[in-house]
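User: Run a structure prediction on this.
Assistant: Running it now.
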Amino acid sequence: MEKNEKKSTTLEIKGVERRTLMKGLGCVGVTLALGPAALSLVPGEVKHSKLIRPPGGQVERRFSSLCVRCNRCQEACPRHVIATAHLGDGLLAARTPKLDFTLGYCDFCMKCVDVCPTNALARVDKKTTHIGIAVILKDQCIPWQWGGCTRCFEKCPEKAIRLDDQKRPYIDPAKCNGCGLCEQICPATELRSYQPGQTRGVEIVRLGSRIEA
């Protein structure tokens, strides 16, 4: 009797697992078939909207519908700032290009645009186009905590970083184009290495993103 009960329970569990698996596969199938339109159908599929895309890829739905994940832009980037999104960035984003400013920064050379076969990326003017915007993370920023560092202020190519009366940096959003040089060169992870994590004192976010600075 005991064996029959165990067998029945096992079958029920397997049945649930099978149903869950089939449901998951069906969800993936719908997502792949509908592309960007499936965003509203896949629970939690919003992470990739926070990714910083290469120049001309800032309209996410257009970019996602045209990008064929060929990796040509990544290979062409002389600054090595283009990385490949992974599943942790969202199902629809997997294997699409994103900018990783811990690797480099974007100088708007447009070589990624030149090799894009589908026009998912497009030529832009770095003076008028913002691929993102810098945000000072005061809890991590060295001058906001201790003082003494002005590296991002000195190196910003657009002069979009200014200093207040106490020589602490803040961003001029009208001038910042999101190139990411400030994030790349920020020394917070080196000088605050006794603290866990890799968060720097400045971070590039998508326009419209809400960040507590």
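Residues 1-46 have pLDDT under 50 and may be disordered.
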